[in-house]
Design brief:
Shape: flat
Helix content: 55-70%
Order of helices and strands: HHHHHHH
Number of helices: 7
Radius of gyration: 19 Å
Largest sheet: none
Structural class: mainly alpha
Length: 192
């Protein structure tokens, strides 16, 4: 794939999204055909195979936005897999390990997304992740994207400090960029 074209991220995203959907559907169909549950560790193993390509997608111009959504999709696929109510310790451990891998990758993606200066509704995404985390917590599965949530909250705090105390508006510079610093391009908060 030629990653120099402007639509390289869109193309790779569409390919990965389709492959993830097909694998997810096939695993659910296999589970139905077997009349038995596929373990969460096996399901997670199949989904984790997509992470290297998602990481590659995140390196393309504007690819981090798509990569963010695909990582959440992988998490959602395991959530829809079922078996949460079994309380099986092995299942819960497999889910925690899977979500930890996703969280690590997502941390890198979120960092890139902020550094690209993209205008995105971070608070909405935080609420989206927190809602799923709350649901999983009722089954004893936690944490869910803790590193990612910390990163996003730190960036929001950093941006609100850049806006000034008391919610004052940023001063527009002649080049149209607030305070002369593009969104996410100032001195970022420490992520580690």
């Amino acid at each position: 794939m030629d990653d120099t074209t402007p639509d390289a991220a869109v193309t790779l995203n569409a390919q990965l999204d389709r492959k993830i959907t097909i694998v997810n559907f096939d695993l659910h169909r296999l589970q139905d055909d077997l009349n038995d549950s596929i373990s969460s560790s096996h399901f997670a193993s199949a989904m984790l195979k997509f992470l290297p390509d998602i990481q590659r997608l995140s390196l393309l111009p504007a690819g981090s936005r798509h990569a963010f959504d695909l990582v959440l999709k992988l998490g959602g696929n395991l959530n829809s897999h079922g078996g949460l109510d079994s309380g099986d310790p092995e299942d819960i451990t497999a889910r925690r390990n899977f979500y930890a891998s996703l969280d690590h990758t997502m941390g890198e993606i979120v960092g890139r997304r902020f550094s690209e200066g993209e205008d995105w509704n971070v608070q909405r995404e935080i609420k989206r992740i927190e809602k799923t985390a709350s649901y999983l917590r009722t089954f004893g599965v936690e944490p869910y994207f803790p590193q990612t949530l910390d990163l996003m909250r730190q960036e929001m705090e950093f941006q609100s400090q850049q806006n000034g105390a008391g919610g004052q508006q940023q001063q527009q510079q002649p080049n149209g960029v607030p305070n002369g610093v593009p969104n996410g391009q100032g001195t970022p908060p420490r992520y580690h």
